[in-house]
Amino acid sequence: MAFFGNLFKNDPSAATRKKYQPRVDAINALEPTIQQLSDEQLRSKTVELRARAQAGESLDALLVEAFAVVREASKRVLGLRPFDVQNIGGMILHEGQIAEMRTGEGKTLVAVLPAFLNALSGKGVHVVTVNDYLARRDSEWVGQVHRFLGLKVGLIQSDMKPEERRLAYACDVTYVTNSELGFDYLRDNLAGSAAELVLRASSPFNYCVIDEVDSILIDEARTPLIISGPSDKPSDKYYKP
Known about the structure:
GO terms for molecular function: ATP binding; chloroplast protein-transporting ATPase activity. By secondary structure, this protein is an alpha/beta fold.
């Protein structure tokens, strides 16, 4: 019984908070300074952070400032201030891990934090959702934060033409469904020339945030993405007379 008693006393969420608390405290300590910036000065922080990232400073080193900037931008644009638990969720996602958010903890807002940070590299970020409606909703709603801070926001929808897709994928942050992203990847692999590609040629997959990750990587993953079409060559070459 002692074993089970000790087992249930261990709180994984408490251990997680303890691990990330120093950075949360640092973000909170920056808040009074960031609050004093004008809108234009806040936007200029994006330019500064992007220059530092492209000069070789690691994204981990920029995380505290980037999250503090996003928090203030979210307050001004959406009227929502990311809480400590949302900052922790953003850090976990930045590390490429899965963050389980409880109902009401604002997972949509959480995704904005690492998306902004990783977009500073200039290599693009994908925010992957399960359907066109959610992709459009998120790009129009929380995408306002990115646009306020000077980032370009793209949206992929199922009825878009190749040129529209190419422009959307070239943005700093692109909202897209898992199926559309998968099919665009397949079509790019079948392309006859570089001019037909819609994904970024140099770095098509830099960083992504996946919403409903259990559904997309487990449930949806069992459904194959198939592109079919007529053969360009006669099939009789494969048969012997």
